[in-house]
Amino acid sequence: MLSRLKSGVRGWLRRARSSGADAPTPVKERPSGDEEVLTYDPSSDSPCPPAPILTLEECPVCGSPESTKVSRYNRFVLFDRTPDAASAIYNYSLCHACGVVYAARRPAGERYRWLLERFEETLGRTEVGAPRPGKFALSSSSLTDEARGELRRMVSNGVFVSGHSGLSRKDYLPSLMSDRLASSMHVEILGSLLPMKAPRVLEIRSRLGSISAMLQRLYGAECRAMSLFENQRFLIEEAYRIPAACPIDFDAFEIPFEGRFDLVISNHMLAHSVHPKEFLATVRSRLTPGGHLYLYQEPVETEFLERGKSMFNTLNPFHLQTFNEASAVRALEANGFTVVFCTVRDDLFLALAQAVELPGDTWERMGDSERSRRRSAYRVANDAAILRVPEHLRAPFAKDWDGVVERSLAAGIAIRSKDGRIKVRRVEAD
Ligand SMILES: [Zn+2]
């Protein structure tokens, strides 16, 4: 049942993508049938819990009450079938103070968990920049004794299995090495910027323990890891002897290990946290004085504001926060961190920040010109995303359609082709 459900969910996702979520022009005909979609049977699944849905009156990152609504929908608006009518509506809002864009309507508690259990794996696996570990490593959320034995046998052949070893891919886990290589950039940054004297490290949302393994090898770090899935947890312990725990509660976030850490490494947590302020406070409370937080894989808005991707497609139902670089810095500074280093690579923000005294009200707010520039950019991105919605999914936009078309033609973000159809203009890739 579960695998059937999951393949059905994968089908939904693929359908959403192939049906034009990323296409430059709306497609007229629905793509030919994806049989997996047909095998999904909602009647055999428990229904999506209708509550809780939180309605935020203030920014969940900095607490400011002032914001501008910039988009009503998340990626579910591009799906043929959604968990329920409310699931696509997030009312993304631009905070006037820190500049983070947050879902002002968001699922929490059992509703968030229900969505996560069904969608996180598929959405998460396709995140930009994410390595793709083998199917075996991530495909199930619980493990039978037989699967444990099988994974143990494969791990026993090591992480770096040479191409001339004579071992086949059934005998080891190529995903372990892939993840090590994909994660090495972060260790290069950390090792270059921090003293790293046998630090105590917590890795949150570790995929396969790679960063911890490297810090352990290079700097004698004492590591703990938190993973989303049991199979990841099992592999981290088996491959590297690093104590690991799962799952991760994005709503009531807790750290299931004792003591304080010199360094906390957080993978893609700020975007997903239901209560980001509390998440940062929990992390901060477990850092040694002057300890560091390293955040990575946090998607920034550039992808849809500047590079013409569909905003609806980028903002999947677990992306509760997004930002630009300056806003991410303000978000950290509003929560008791000072940023030591940050950069954006492949539309993903990363930062090294140090815990400092809580700032009171002294952190610098977003300026007027940045606010108005981003409000305009979001309006354009929202119009462009609407124009790219496949025709058979346009009902929610019927009322706004003419206005969107008119604005987009006037602004030059769309053109009318000879057959009268509206096309969003391609943005030149940089
Ligand atoms: Zn804010």
Task: Give a verbal description of the structure.
The protein is built from 14 helices and 15 strands. The N and C termini lie far apart (45 Å). A hairpin with a 5-residue loop joins strand 14 (414-416) and strand 15. With 430 residues, the chain is an alpha/beta fold. Residues 1-41 and 124-140 have low confidence and may be disordered. The strands form 4 sheets. A 7-stranded mixed β-sheet has the order 8-7-6-9-10-13-12, with helices on both faces. It folds into 2 domains: 2-125, no CATH class; 135-355, Rossmann fold, CATH 3.40.50.150. Helix 5 packs parallel to helix 8. It binds zinc ion (ZN).
Secondary structure elements and their pairing?
Blueprint: H1 2-21, H2 35-39, E1 53-55, E2 67-73, E3 89-95, E4 101-103, E5 105-107, H3 109-125, H4 135-138, H5 145-155, H6 174-193, E6 200-204, H7 210-219, E7 222-226, H8 230-240, E8 244-245, E9 261-267, H9 276-285, E10 287-299, H10 302-305, H11 311-314, E11 321-322, H12 325-333, E12 337-345, E13 348-355, H13 368-387, H14 401-411, E14 414-416, E15 422-424
Parallel strand pairs: 6-7, 6-9, 7-8, 9-10
Antiparallel strand pairs: 1-5, 2-3, 3-4, 4-11, 10-13, 12-13, 14-15
Helix pairs in contact: 1-3, 5-8, 6-7, 13-14
The structure holds zinc ion (ZN).
Q: Please state the structural category.
A: alpha/beta
CATH class of the largest domain, please? Answer: Alpha Beta
Describe the sheet with the most strands: 7 strands, mixed
What oligomeric arrangement do these chains adopt?
single chain
- Could you state the order of secondary-structure elements as H and E? HHEEEEEHHHHEHEHEEHEHHEHEEHHEE
The proportion of strand residues reads: 15-25%
